Amino acid sequence: MTSSNGIHSETDAGRRGTTGDVASASEPDRSTVAVGACVARRFASAEEAARDAANVLLRGPLVAHAYAGGLDSQLRERIMVAVSQVNACGGCTRVHRRWALRAGVSSAELEALRTGDLEHLDPRSRAAVSYAVARAERRFEGPASPGTEKSASKHLSVRELKEVDAIARAMALANLSLNTLAARRPPSRTGAAQHPVFARVWSHISGKVGSDKQRSELLAGLRGRVLEVGAGDGRNFAHYPPEVSEVLAVEPEPYLRCLASGAARAAPVPVTVVDGTAELLPREDGVFDSVVSSLVLCSVVDQQIALAELHRVLMPGGELRFYEHVIAERTLGKAVQAGLDGSGIWPHLGAGCHLARDTLGTIAAAGFTVERVRRFTSGPGPLGLPFVLGTARRKSAHREALGAAT
Questions:
Q1: How far is 8 from 80, CA to CA, in rounded Å?
Q2: Which among 119, 134, 171, 259 is least surrounded, fewest beta carbons within 10 Å?
Q3: Are residues 200 and 180 in the same domain?
Q4: Of 136, 159, 184, which one is at a domain's C-terminal end?
Q5: What sign has the CA pseudo-torsion 66, 72, 76, 79?
C-alpha cells in the first residue's frame, strides 16, 4: 500500500529494506507516487476530534516514557516526520525535519522518508516507521497488516510498539488539528517560503546591496562544481569564473527563483536553479568543490542546521565562500541590532532576516576553518551595516578524525 504522499506503508514499507522481514513481492511503479500531491486530512466532526484527543490523553504515560528514554530521539523524529507526511501536514513536517536534523537524522534518511524508499533506514527504524504509517493511515482502527505487525514485533518490544503507536497518535492529532484549523481560516496569499512583497522590493534593491566588485571578489578563483544557497534573483551568476563547470543554485522564494532562472540563461557557466532551503539541501554528501552563501545566513531558520548541511555537501577540503552581514562589534550597534531583532519588526520586514547573528563565529564552530575574512560596513556613517566577505574551508577527513579523537 502506498500513501498518497509517497510513504510506502504496510507490507510494501517492510520490503523497502534489505532485512527480508516480509516475503518479497513485485515492486510498485515509482512513477505512481504523487509526492506532495495528497490532500491534508482533517477532522470530520467535533466528536471525532474529541475521541482522538481522549485516546492520546489515555496514552499520555506512554508518550512521556517514550520521551524519557523509551525511544531514542532519532527514531521518534523519523516517526513524526513520516506520520506528518501521511497526514499532509506541511507545517508539522517542516518543523520535524529541522528537529530530526538536530537529533542526528541524516538528510538521506529524510529524503527516503519523503519518497517512501526506506532502504536508507536501519531495520529497527524501518519497522517502526512502517508500523506508525500503517496505523496512521488506518486512523488507528484495527491492527496493521500481518506483514507489518510481524516486522515490527521482530525489531521492537511490546512496550516499544505501544510507545510508537502513542507517538504516532499524538502526531496525528497535532496534524489533523492544524489542518482543520487551517481549513477554517481564509486562504493565505503566501506560503512558508513565499514573501511576495519583500521579493519584489529585493529584486529592485539587491544591486545596491553589494557591488559587482564585491561579487567578483566573492567568486574569484572558484572551479569545478559549486552550490549557491539562497541565490535570490541570480545576481551573482554573471560573476562566476569560466573554471566553474556547473552551479546548482537553491532558492525557496518563487518570484526570486523565477528571476534567477532568467539570469541563469544568460550566465557564462552552466547554472541550474532549483527549489530548496539551506536546512535541507537536495544533494548527497561531499559532491561540491565549493559552496557560496551570499546574504542568506541572516534569514535561515537555524544557522547551525544550515551550516551543517553546507558542510555535509562539501567535499573534505572544499571551500565555503561567504558574504554576509553580521552583528556589530561595538556595544551600541549590537544593542540596536538586538533590539530590532527582538521586537520582530526587522525579521518581519526582511522576510526572516536577523541583524544580530554572529555568523562568522557560527561558521567557525560548524567544522570550518576561516582562512580569509574582510570586514567592512555598507550604508551611511554610523548607520552602516557591518559585513564580512571571505573564505572558510571544510576540514579534511584526516583533520576531522583527529579533532573527533581529541
A1: 15
A2: 119
A3: no
A4: 184
A5: negative
Q: What is the mean pLDDT of residues 238-265?
A: 93
Mean pLDDT within 134-140? 88
Name the residue type at position 119.
E
The number of beta carbons lying within 10 Å of the beta carbon of residue 339 is: 13
Strand ranges across the sheet with 368-378: 271-274, 244-250, 224-229, 288-294, 314-325, 385-394, 368-378
DSSP SS3 for 146: helix
State residue 182's pLDDT score. 67
Neighbours of 335 (CB within 10 A): 12
Cα dihedral sign, 78-121-320-219: negative
Is the predicted pLDDT of residue 127 greater than 80, yes or no? yes
Q: What CATH number corresponds to the domain at position 341?
A: 3.40.50.150
Query: How far is it, in rounded angstroms, from Cα 158 to Cα 179?
Result: 31
Amino acid at 195: H
Structure confidence at residue 8 (pLDDT): 44
In a domain, 217, yes or no: yes
**Are 282 and 369 in a shared domain?**
yes
What are the tens digits of pLDDT across the range 268-322? 999 999 988 888 887 888 999 999 999 889 888 888 888 999 999 999 999 999 9
Among the candidates 129, 162, 184, a domain finishes at: 184
In the chain, the amino acid numbered 290 is S
Q: Are residues 259 and 346 in the same domain?
A: yes
Which ranges of 66-192 does DSSP label H, i.e. alpha helix?
Answer: 73-86, 90-103, 107-115, 123-137, 146-155, 158-184
Give the per-residue pLDDT at 10: 38
Q: β-strand 368-378 against 314-325: which pairing, if any?
A: unpaired
Residues 165 and 21 in one domain: yes
All residues at 6 or more sequence positions from 94 whose CB lies less than 8 Å from its CB, including other chains: 192
Query: Given this model, what pLDDT does residue 186 score?
Result: 46
Residue that is written with C-alpha cell 531495520 in the block:
123
